[in-house]
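Run log, item B.
One chain of 118 residues. Sequence copied directly from the ordering sheet:
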Amino acid sequence: PAGTAARVETVSAKAAKDTAPVRPKSALDRILATCPTAEDDVTDALTTTVVDTRIEKYRRLVRRCPNSGDLWAWLAQDYQTAGRRGEARQAAERALLLDGENKEAAQVMRELKSTPES
């Protein structure tokens, strides 16, 4: 019967949802999920106040942890702050490729599109 097929489909969808990996809430948790030994270096980069120095730290981190969308997004934000639009766009695109839900990278892309190059 048609009702049985609909119930099976609903149960299957619920089972798939229940077994889908849960996205860690914090960026640090997501980074450590992909690169568990990076916590000290990430903390060091986050507490660095000089943008150019922080960019270098994030560049080292993305070489070490290339699958972290959050690290790429943070690098994109700092490139944007430093006026390095092309590099900001590339880093944001990489972040979104790795994590289509990355809000920071999406924001960088929106801002780059809405502000003319000088």
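Observations after the first pass:
- The first helix runs from residue 2 to 19.
- The chain has a mean pLDDT of 88.
Flagged for discussion on Thursday.
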